[in-house]
Amino acid sequence: MQTPTLIALALYFILMLGIGLYAWKRSTEDSEGYLLGGRNLPPAVAALSAGASDMSGWLLLGLPGALYLSGLVEAWIGIGLFVGAVVNWIVVAPRLRRQTVEYGNALTIPQFLANRFPDKAVALRVTSAIIIVVFFAVYSAAGLVGGGLLFESTFIDAPVMGFSPYMAGVLLTALVVLAYTMVGGFLAVSLTDFVQGCIMVVALVVMPLVVLFGDGWAATGDALRAVDPDFLSWFGGLTTIGFLSAIAWGLGYFGQPHIIVRFMAIREGGVKAARNIGLAWMFVALIGALGVGLAGRAHVEMNGLTLENSETIFILLANTLFHPFVTGFLLAALLAAIMSTISSQLLVSSSSLTEDFYRLFLKKDASEREAVTVGRISTALVAVAAIVIASDPESGVLALVANAWAGFGAAFGPLIILSLTWKRMTGAGAVAGLVVGAGVVMAWIALGWNSEFLGGPGIYEIIPGFAASWLAIWLVSKATTKEPAVAVA
């Protein structure tokens, strides 16, 4: 790797660690500071933090890779996500910000559910915490896979201390994320997400424009149509099940703890401003990701290049089209996408282990300083589990993200929406929704029905999981309602 590229990356790492140290001085004295930044995030920070932690390396690796292989038809995933994000900001964000304060100043999603349904408090906290830790280990692994692919493709060409280039990349990515997450907590994660979100969106705008202006817009379109006449068709080869599976990605937004926890942390009165900033950022970022996949495929075809893994098209373009210093900036954008999500997921997992296991069962009277220490240890433990999952170099970023996204969306999505909006929901219904949603998703994946269903194309597991969870909540709540529950506005 050339020296200018290394300098750019070194500056990026120094910036991230510097933010971690700054946050350490500001936010780690108590649990509310460490886990929610004191509920005082500025709207812009909260918005870009939610966006950056949401999109992850999937935005620069998985989605462009899907478009590279299959064409514009894969854009329906992005459309579904955007619609889901709009509804999430409108329906969930303002209610969750207000009600988590009203219900005992809850610091975690499991804690909020327990306070909302006190008759099933322990069952809700334990069940939801288990789901969070299990699926976030998988989700974090997807980010580490992206880091492994990046280092293997660009930074490392020989074993490092006995580790393969891929595994060395996984470990280095995990260590850097752990450094600033364990030190600075939620504020560090949110501030680094803000910076990383800015870097990501600039890279996603610049890269496709450089490719298109360099190769020519008309020539790019001709090259893509030469691959497949329907490559630029929104509906080429699209089945009804395929369309529903793509759009259904939007259902996942309502149940992603690492995203909706940002709603809990926005400073009072800042939700509307954060919503506008977050949706604008997301729209531009998604358009850029689509451009990377499509323009990248045309560039490869027109120049006779070879790409073994479609999910590395961003890396290929960064290495071949730009000055080494700019390449460093673009690769830093990819690292930003990967690290922003991993750090958020590790922190939410550690908060559940601390608040919903340690303080619930092991030491109820733990001091604030002790709780913060346990949170840091928990962060490291979840990271180790993610490293183990990511150790398989054949793991696909999009596949891992899809599984974890579906698990959270089905388990928590209907539960969060109904707990915020339906006054007759019961604690038993909440537990049923969690268990049924997560169980259906895991069973669907285990049976392979997300790949093939009844001899036809597979159905994305979030569809049956979300529907089953919603139905379970409604049926069990109806069956167990004895008196009107607390009104919810």
UniProtKB/TrEMBL annotation:
Transmembrane segments: 6-24, 75-93, 122-146, 166-191, 198-219, 231-255, 276-300, 312-338, 371-391, 397-420, 427-447, 459-476
Coiled coil region boundaries: none
Main subcellular location of this protein, as a coarse class: membrane
GO MF term (any one): L-proline transmembrane transporter activity
PROSITE patterns noted in UniProt: NA_SOLUT_SYMP_2, NA_SOLUT_SYMP_3
Membrane topology label: Multi-pass membrane protein
One term under GO cellular component: plasma membrane
Localization, UniProt: Cell inner membrane; Cell membrane
A biological-process GO annotation: proline transport
Reactions mediated catalytically: L-proline(in) + Na(+)(in) = L-proline(out) + Na(+)(out)
Domain of life: Bacteria
One Pfam family it belongs to: SSF
InterPro entries with a match to the protein in the record: Na/Glc_symporter_sf, Na/Pro_symporter, Na/solute_symporter, Na/solute_symporter_CS, Sodium:Solute_Symporter
Keyword annotations from UniProtKB, A to Z: Amino-acid transport, Cell inner membrane, Cell membrane, Ion transport, Membrane, Sodium, Sodium transport, Symport, Transmembrane, Transmembrane helix, Transport
Function summary: Catalyzes the sodium-dependent uptake of extracellular L-proline.
Family under the similarity heading: Belongs to the sodium:solute symporter (SSF) (TC 2.A.21) family.
PANTHER family: SODIUM/PROLINE SYMPORTER-RELATED (PTHR48086), SODIUM_PROLINE SYMPORTER (PTHR48086:SF3)
Protein name in UniProt: Sodium/proline symporter
Species: Aurantiacibacter zhengii
